[in-house]
Amino acid sequence: MARVMIDCPETGEPVYTGMTFDWPSFENIKIGQRLIRCSSCGDEHIWKRPDARLEEDGGGA
Q: Which DSSP symbol is given to 51?
């Protein structure tokens, strides 16, 4: 599984959304607007699927 990441609009740092998907599911999933408390700046951000990307979590399969 891979982590769904966005970039903080304030700092540009990557932020984990708390969601994980396998690559095929992520390509086909419909995600509406989501709210996240940013671990980088502490603010809340609204994000959508086009704002996100997958990042391998480094764990074993």
A: G
